[in-house]
Amino acid sequence: MTDRIDAAEEQIAHLTRILDDLSDVVAAQADEIDRLTRRVEMLIQRDTGQDGTAAPAADQRPPHW
Q1: pLDDT for 16-40, tens place per residue?
Q2: Burial group, residue 40, by CB count within 10 angstroms (0-12, 13-18, 19+)
Q3: Which of the residues 19, 40, 48, 50 has the least number of beta carbons within 10 Å of its own beta carbon?
Q4: SS3 (DSSP) at 50
């Protein structure tokens, strides 16, 4: 009986460790998604015109002109 309890406690310890590791991964991914979202928003703001709409690429003059 104690062998079964020991095995169950060992399994719980492993599962707890895995859950903690996965929680850390999810938190890191959430931080990365937030960072990337901010960067995309900055790029969108940078590429928008004065009136807040993006200028079509065909209407923009190349930088060497």
Answers
A1: 999 999 999 999 999 999 999 999 9
A2: exposed
A3: 50
A4: coil
